[in-house]
Amino acid sequence: MNAPFGRWWASALAAALALSVPGAARAQDATAYFKQNCVSCHTIGGGRLTGPDLKDVTVRRDHDWLLRYMPNPKALIDAGDPIAVQLFQEARGVLMPSLPGLTPDMADALISLMESESKLEKSQFVGVQVSDRPFTAQDIERGRAIMRGDIAQLAGGPPCLSCHTVRGVGALGGGRLGPDLTKVYERLQGRKGLSAWLSAPATTTMQSVFRDTPLDAEEILPVVAYLEEAARQGGEDSGFGRVTFLLLGLGGAVVLLAGMDGAWRKRFRAVRGPLVEEAGFGRAHTRGGIR
Known about the structure:
Blueprint: H1 2-37, H2 57-60, H3 63-69, H4 73-78, H5 82-90, H6 104-118, H7 137-148, H8 184-187, H9 191-199, H10 204-210, H11 217-233, H12 240-287
Helix pairs in contact: 1-6, 7-11, 9-11
């Protein structure tokens, strides 16, 4: 009798595991997806960032509406959906992008994740805790050095100016792959929103770069301080750095070509002279009567 009971218990346990593992894996995938794609604009219980706080979003919004909105917010805005239009206006015209890999199954898993996290006293997605102390001149200068690459990032990430520029950052400016960051402090609505973005950038390019080399919390605050100061100064990068870089490049090319011309001209003469003399001697010898 014990043997049949043991076999039944083993079968029941195996069935339970078979049912629970896919659910656990689904939740784990949703958690990783949220960390990678959502925390730069949303918290769960930590207040508004660029996008709304998602705590109790499943109470405020219908499940089917969320499934339609999340994969393509623009489609609902263009269709005049009143809730989508209101969210767009509250975000000050910042459009939630269509997220990569957001399948219907993943969207449903994210909704379940937001519902379960909302029930916790403190969600793991409460957001980056940012100091509200006034920034100092040292904070601003350190942030400038981190962005320029004068100070290496702790995780080994590339300097921000590899892809971005900021007004007044240096004579040559920065890169042009990404947008001008002079006013990003204003675009992301201040210290908290910008800090959240820097902790988990949501764009495909930045994810590929900073997934394994994220900015440290000690680096984020000074970078925010520098970008706040840049926004306070106003304006945008004038492009003077690009002109300077172009002129330096043209000047360097001219100097290089002049140097190569000088070196090769002397080498050419050193070879040509003996050949000409030998050729001239041969013709004179022939005219002298030797056939």
